[in-house]
Amino acid sequence: MANLKFGKYLMETIIRKAEKSDTEAIFTLIKELAVYEKEPDAVIINKRTFKEHGFGKKPLFKCFVAEINEKVVGIALFYSRYSTWKGPTLHLEDLIVTEEMKGKGIGSMLYTAFLEYADKAGVERVEWAVLDWNRTAITFYQQSGAKVLSDWRTVQMDKKSIQNYFQKINS
User: Fold this and answer.
1) Whether 92 contacts 128, CB under 8 Å
2) Mean pLDDT, rounded, for 92-115
3) Alpha carbon distance 170, 160 (integer Å)
4) Is the N end or the C end of the chain the one with fewer CB atoms within 10 Å?
5) Domain segments of the chain: what residues?
6) pLDDT tens profile 106-131
């Protein structure tokens, strides 16, 4: 927990593990991030599926939330991966803070909570992607000691691309 000062008001920021009841707030932040990253229509998952993936019988991700006055204002969402060179790793999928709360240290608190979790979990590496135009984030990560790799490229295939691939090789 930390206290943040907004004007003459002092507000307590709580960083905690996300709960099923946080689904709506987390989902809203994910959609806000999509708009910020100039891909407002990219979020195709629905809340029900998202809730099952995160809080169902076999959760696929973990998440910390930042809360002020019982309102979620940020998240750090991550999941386990495995590196054949390093061993267990964690992938930070999203580190999001609401637009109105950016620049107040909340992202740093979530980032620290994620790194503390990674350290206690004994992983050999943490990794994530950052858009090349997000200079604020790149600078933040570099100042924290992270290496921003320029020689690796992210490669993705969406469901349609996968289907097209199979259609191509089977024709």
Assistant:
1) yes
2) 95
3) 15
4) C
5) 2-128
6) 999 999 999 999 999 999 999 999 99
User: What is the third-level CATH fold of 2-128?
Assistant: Aminopeptidase (3.40.630)
In this prediction the pTM is 0.90
Token pair for 6? 């907004």
Active-site residue among 79, 117, 141, 165?
A: 141
Q: Identify the burial level of 93 via C-beta atoms within 10 angstroms of its C-beta, where 0-12 means exposed, 13-18 middle and 19 or more buried.
A: middle
pLDDT at 9 over 90: no
Q: Closest by alpha carbon to 118, among 156, 76, 152?
A: 76
Is 141 catalytic? The answer is: yes
Smallest Cα–Cα separation from 92: which of 132, 55, 126?
126
